[in-house]
Amino acid sequence: MAAPVLAPAPGSVGRLVRATVLAVVVLLMAVALSVAFGSRPIPLGTVLDTVLHPGRQDEIGLIVLGNRVPRTVVGLLAGAALGVAGAVMQGVTRNPLADPSVLGINAGASLAVVAGIALFGLSGTAAYLPFAFVGAGLAALLVYGIAAVARRGLSPVGLALSGAVVAAALSSVTTAVLVTDQALLDQLRFWQVGALAGKDLGTAGVITVPVLVGLVVAVALGRSLNTLALGDELAASLGQRVVLVRVVGGVVTVLLAGSAVAAAGPIAFVGLAVPHAVRRLTGPDNRWTILLSAIVAPALLLVADVIGRVVAYPGELQVGIVTALIGAPVFILLVRSRAVRGL
């Protein structure tokens, strides 16, 4: 039997389309802010002229093409990856508290990258990427295993508690490795908290393929996640291959979260806050939630990055700190809400 789809109510399709268009406009505005604002504001006309004439070698050309455009592109990819990873995790686990940072996946990827650098002298995003995938996957399995044998089991709060324990433990090990190697600490000081600064287009090129593959599979998975929301038994009776959907969802999450961590470090709470925000517009339909998360999350990340550049002038507050300040209150509200019972 074909899996049912949560069809939008009559008249709601237009509302969802309008919400998508609005999200795209907001994203374009965030991109404009990202390339125009910083320690030295540059008019958008000058930015556009510089992008269209990339041979420019003056100070403005170096700022725009050497700094702001690459970090904006990395922010777009990492933001979309984190937002969609959170949406998929919440759909697969039916857990409104699911997020790569809350469930320890980012911490696992981060520890694996740091260990790879310390043990094998890794350098560059291309070398970080496979270690980030392995670390993220092992952390996900560890969290799931701990939650499965714990008293609260695989409930939303049980998974969140298991993830918090694993994230704290892995982050402690990462910190221990860093503090014993001053050179490594200096190298990863900003990456450890999540940063877009100092990225180049090579970084974007490394993660483009895994992020795009993850996004495409995630969008295709939306229909199955809608069926999974009905409960495992009912989903199975309707012909849904529940285990396969969860495995594919887990692989997509590892692919997206690992790519984001390898490129920008363990940025927290984007995957938690954004799906909940867009779900107020999309309702329970995961297809629309995933689509809008891929648009809204990079907008949030870029705006947070711009805020970090402005509030700490002439220095810079790394984007991972800003997103944590935004996401922590959201997490607290969700824990206190009845919504933690499940999606």
UniProtKB/TrEMBL annotation:
Record-level GO BP terms: siderophore-iron import into cell
Keywords: Cell membrane, Membrane, Transmembrane, Transmembrane helix, Transport
Keyword Lyase in annotation: no
Cell location: Cell membrane
Keyword Transmembrane: yes
GO molecular function: transmembrane transporter activity
Similarity remark: Belongs to the binding-protein-dependent transport system permease family. FecCD subfamily.
Protein name, UniProt field: Iron ABC transporter permease
Transmembrane segments: 16-37, 72-89, 101-120, 127-147, 159-180, 201-223, 243-276, 288-311, 317-335
GO cellular component: plasma membrane
Gene3D superfamilies with a match to the protein in the record: ABC transporter involved in vitamin B12 uptake, BtuC
Superkingdom of the organism of origin: Bacteria
Membrane topology: Multi-pass membrane protein
Record organism: Curtobacterium luteum
Phylogenetic lineage: Bacteria, Bacillati, Actinomycetota, Actinomycetes, Micrococcales
Any single Pfam family the record assigns to this protein: FecCD
